[in-house]
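Proteins fold reproducibly. Consider a sample protein:
=====
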Amino acid sequence: MKNILVLGAGLVSRPGVRYMLEQDNLFVTVASRTVSKAEALVEGYNNGKAIELNVNNADELVALIKSHDIVISLLPWIHHVKVAELCLEHNTHMATTSYVSEGMNAINQEVKDKGLLFLNEIGVDPGIDHMSAMKIIDEIHDEGGKILHFYSYCGGLPAPDDNDNPFGYKFSWSPKGVVLASRNSAKFLENGDVVDIEGKNLFLNSREENVEGLGMYEIYPNRDSLPYKDIYGLKDALTVMRGTYRNLGWCRTLKAIVDIGLVDDTVRPELCCKSYKAVMETLIGKSDNLKHATANKLNINIDSDVIERFEWLGLFSDDVAPNRDNYLDILSDLLQEKLFFKEGEKDMIILQHKFTVENKDGSQDFITSTLIDYGIPHGDSSMARTVSLPLAIGVTMMANGKINLTGVQIPNMKEIYEPVLDELENLNIKMVEKRTPIN
């Protein structure tokens, strides 16, 4: 029996932990600062155990890592490298759903030298996006074709029936993480030209697109897409762009939030215990009409939907803001309070790849590969399922010796993506492919 250690028991962990607990040859220990969350995940299973752990307690963390075969880090990404270095030291395999950081990549050779596998980016985005894209890319190349244009978009949103607030968004993971993403720069290749976007201009570069069966959505570019030309083997591609789906109006609203200064995390003790109105006045200046002053500062109309969203959120109110010492935390707490999934509501994941393909005979096809997945009312969210189930499947494969790789890896190889995608389809998480000739 293989011993699996799961560090963290947060919002996305349950489906994956339960999947592993259903395996006869795995014993799963869930370690969390809040032990009650870990206990809920393993309840009813004899091959599961919950323990309390403060990840900053190095001695306890080392003892746990030494006694397990594979460590799964579902901790905030800032802890992954520390966990990885301990796994390396104590000859333990590792898996995460997070992007490979510079620190993680730096230990790649040492991980290889020890014959270990550190499998990263095996969630939904990153994760299912890599695997489903590579499936088609490899098929096209095997047919002797070329991929000329590649777009890949993903977003976690409220299901249309439960999309009932002006932001068109509800949080199924950390609000702070979503807001911080608004500061990311972006880079992609389109029609042979490199497009480089500063973080402050991220939301000025949105576009709208129809998703069949759902309607129109906004898309903004997601980080640096250029490395995927090599990672995915897209040597002939004139376009390589990855992006994020949001409901209409999100981008101009987040741009306004950035421009006002509400994503600044500089410590400012004077913000503590103020009203939202007073917090806004520290950014806008005191005014007899804060709404008008905010609109003027943003150079938008007072009846703009952005101002309506600010007002709905409560930013102009006399309500007392959370006792926080920076704008980012105040905003994140407010978003968590207002943009939440009520009991029984469903979230939705949209993931779509678009390929323009030149076939061996010179003809061209347009291919889409689309996942539309919904959360289960009163059950697991789609975000939790699509993040943690690929991870759990990958770890189960590692435990069973089904992945013959070492080093720091992502799931862009056939020996990983093919069985993981097949098992996800068994769990009703499926990409639907369509291929249309281009006249």
Q: What stands out?
A: The domain at 261-338 is CATH 1.10.1870.10 (Domain 3, Saccharopine reductase). The chain has a mean pLDDT of 95. The chain has 16 helices and 16 strands.
